[in-house]
Design brief:
- This protein is of the alpha/beta class.
- The protein is 35% helix and 13% strand.
- It has a 6-stranded mixed sheet with strand order 2-1-3-4-5-6. Strands 15-16-17-18 form a 4-stranded parallel sheet.
- Helix 10 (314-328) packs parallel to helix 11 (346-356) and helix 17 (498-506) crosses helix 18 (524-534).
- It is globular, with a radius of gyration of 25 Å.
Length: 645
């Protein structure tokens, strides 16, 4: 049952929370007041947005994207942007029992009273929580049944938003720093109309249609680059689900191009973020030295959708990092990048930052790195940085499978990297592998066990020879399940069923018999749900809504994921899971073909063919332009330019 959002004042919600919060597990999830939190006058704002992350407060605290959008909007005096997160089960129950609508953290205003509800979708397993936010706000789940606020989703998952296209009014593809402001300016121009139509559902619907016609490109209207309005597109499908056509029925283009920031140095950054008032997943400040990747790993969606590769200057980055350290007091600095070790100025940045931040006892956290780059860029970091864990993405243990996935490393580079790591004193190393990759055999999986054993043996030998400064080196091995993702060469691949993934996971159990090594694997049921949704079409809206009604929530949480609910929902909606998990024909129209990340379908088809032939493709940053399509929207994307930087 939805919560009734009928007019309720913030003070009434505050009073209700006095009775509600003593009965929930973590009350501090449900109010703001943090140091650094925005406080703005509602009545002076010409644009009012509430930015949502569909998970609990402490998980959201580690996500940069939604906080950056809030910061960008609040940087304008006339704009107001607040936050809301998904309540945990205990809070959901009490909100429903007391008929208290979902509210913003900053002002306790009902979510339904804002102009825009912006939701960050970072993965497919958040889709039922998207519906949870709408339902608790007292809003109809289906966009066609809703008036205001306008629901706009962004984030990596929206490069195939079709499974949730019936629930959102619009999607923003790509970088949001500037596009969010353009959206706000357009909506602000309707301030009087929004205020006048509030409460009249039909008038709200009519106004929403008018605003959406301004946000998305239509006949005679340029719109905002990257904005996709599903209601502007007609999708024709056959009885068995094959797509026959996707057309823009409002006179706009049939292909929506993503928004992107060409110059990171001029792009806004949040220098005074709210400091969480409860322990989060990661209490650290974040800087982003580079955006994008050119390696072309064939399974990696982020490597495709975040192209082109762009960098920030060291001076700009050091200034940002110093401001963050001063405003937050966090002693840990996290570097956000798909592969930070690709940045040729990484050593220079770390050295300068440590010189400027001696009083902070600074610890620097690196994301997973490419092994081949470690000898060049990480030596000084390993020596000077306070020791934490280091993550290496190996992915595949055999050279044959590395060629299939375009992972340009070999065993010699792996052992060379470990010698550098251990000789620098690191004693915790995390290794990432994947199972279920296209063409994978049992031998490929079993070789993971063999390789881990060889690494441990090599570490012992280095210690015996006096080349290792690590005390008792430990390995944490993680094996995730491959899920085919849109806009990758593997978007045509078949995904293995949970039973087969379970069997292959058992082939890895020998790792647990190796001393000082821990093994973790992903829940295959959750991967099954993710695989269905990742390459899904609009028909899946039925299953998502039904799963939500049956109790699906927080599907990314292993102890909350319920594949049985999803199986029932798929069955009740007459949908076949195997259709979504099966291989795709390279000639068929895919649900996301009308949404462009800049990388062409022709390039992806060539890469898919090369993968089956076990042929590698060189990094364009180290060779010539591969004509992936990015230069059509970003002419400055040239390998020579990157080398000169």
């Amino acid at each position: 049952m939805s919560v009734n959002p009928n007019i309720i004042e913030p003070e009434q919600i505050r009073l209700r929370l006095d009775d509600i919060l003593p009965h929930v597990e973590k009350p501090s999830r449900y109010f703001a007041g943090e140091i650094g939190a925005f406080r703005k006058d509602w009545n002076k704002a010409v644009f009012r947005a509430v930015i949502a992350f569909p998970d609990v407060y402490e998980i959201a605290a580690a996500n940069l994207g939604h906080k950056l959008i809030q910061h960008v909007l609040n940087s304008r005096d006339e704009f107001l942007a607040e936050r809301v997160y998904a309540p945990w089960h205990d809070m959901e129950k009490l909100l429903r029992e007391t008929q208290t609508p979902l509210y913003s953290l900053e002002s306790y205003r009902p979510v339904s009273s804002f102009d825009i509800l912006g939701i960050s979708l970072t993965h497919e397993l958040s889709y039922t929580n998207l519906l949870l936010l709408l339902d608790l706000a007292g809003l109809p789940l289906r966009a066609s049944e809703r008036g205001l606020p306008i629901v706009i989703c962004g984030g990596p998952s929206v490069f195939n938003p079709e499974p949730v296209a019936e629930f959102a009014d619009a999607f923003l593809l790509g970088d949001g720093e500037y596009a969010a402001v353009e959206i706000a300016e357009i909506v602000a121009g309707f301030r009087e109309e929004i205020d006048r139509t509030r409460g009249d559902i039909q008038s709200e619907k009519d106004l929403k249609i008018e605003i959406l016609s301004r946000l998305g490109e239509t006949k005679g209207n340029k719109g905002v680059r990257g904005v996709y309005v599903p209601s502007h597109f007609a999708v024709e499908q056959t009885a068995d689900g094959k797509i026959e056509s996707v057309k823009n029925i409002e006179g706009g283009p049939d292909i929506i191009e993503k928004a992107f920031v060409s110059d990171l140095d001029s792009a806004p950054w949040e220098l005074k973020p709210p400091i969480p008032h409860m322990q989060g997943v990661s209490n650290r400040s974040i800087v982003e030295p580079v955006r994008g990747c050119t390696h072309g790993c064939r399974f990696c969606q982020a490597g495709m959708i975040y192209r082109p590769f762009r960098t920030r200057s060291v001076e700009n980055l050091v200034e940002q990092a110093e401001s963050l350290l001063s405003s937050t007091g966090f002693s840990e600095q996290s570097i956000l990048a798909l592969s930070a070790t690709d940045w040729s100025s990484l050593d220079k940045f770390i050295i300068q930052l440590q010189e400027h931040a001696r009083d902070f006892h600074l610890r620097i956290s690196l994301p997973s790195g490419r092994i081949a780059k470690l000898p060049e860029n990480v030596t000084s970091i390993l020596v000077k940085n306070r020791k934490g864990g280091l993550t290496l993405a190996i992915e595949a243990a055999t050279q044959r499978l590395r060629s299939v996935i375009n992972k340009d490393i070999d065993d010699d580079e792996i052992f060379n990297a470990f010698e550098i790591i251990l000789s620098s004193g690191w004693d915790l190393v995390k290794l990432y592998f994947m199972i279920g990759l296209p063409t994978e055999t049992d031998e490929d999986v079993e070789e993971i066990v063999t390789l881990v054993g060889r690494i441990v043996g090599y570490a012992k030998r280095l210690k015996k020879e006096g080349k290792s400064k690590a005390g008792n080196p430990r390995l944490k091995v993680s094996a995730s399940s491959f899920v085919p993702k849109p806009h990758t060469p593997f978007q045509w691949a078949e995904m293995l069923k949970p039973e087969e993934l379970d069997r292959r996971q058992k082939l890895l159990l020998g790792i647990r018999r190796i001393k000082s090594v821990d093994l973790s694997t992903h829940d295959t049921g959750a991967s099954w749900i993710e695989g269905i949704l990742a390459r899904g079409d609009r028909r899946l809206s039925c299953a998502i809504e039904r799963a939500f009604r049956l109790g699906a929530r927080f599907d990314a949480w292993s102890d909350r994921c319920r594949p049985d609910i999803w199986k029932k929902a798929m069955d009740e909606c007459g949908l076949e899971p195997d259709y979504y998990l099966g291989p795709r024909d390279t000639k068929e129209i895919l649900p996301w073909d009308h949404l462009s990340c800049g990388v062409s379908k022709e390039f992806l088809q060539k890469e898919w063919k090369k993968s089956l032939e076990m042929k590698m493709t060189r990094d364009c940053n180290e060779s010539v332009c591969l004509n992936c399509g990015i230069r059509d929207i970003f002419p400055d994307c040239s390998p020579q330019r990157l080398k000169e930087e």
